[in-house]
Write a structure and sequence with these properties.
The structure is a single chain. With about 80 residues, this protein is mostly helical. The chain has a domain of about 50 residues. The protein contains three helices and no strands. The longest helix has 24 residues. The protein starts with 17 loop residues before the first helix and ends in a 10-residue tail after the last helix.
Length: about 80
């Protein structure tokens, strides 16, 4: 489920470049939808970055283990 799906919307004050707002209106671009999508993407990227940073040591240890020992399915896989 996407973050913004069926979530309540709240009014927010933003400062946006005047030329961009004008052009978006001319093209009938919904600024709220664009902001929602951009925020979801930015949040997803930041959460991924934070998770990778928090788990960096465990990932390195696992990769080292696999390099030395292989993975559990090495003896059974057919590719």
């Amino acid at each position: 489920m996407r973050m913004g799906t069926k979530a309540r919307k709240v009014p927010t004050n933003l400062s946006v470049r005047e030329d961009l707002v004008r052009r978006a209106k001319e093209l009938e671009i919904n600024l709220s939808e664009v902001l929602d999508a951009a925020l979801e993407d930015a949040i997803r990227r930041e959460e991924q970055r934070a998770w990778l940073a928090a788990n960096k040591d465990a990932i390195a240890q696992y990769n080292e283990f696999v390099e030395k020992n292989g993975v559990f399915s090495d003896d059974w896989r057919r590719f």
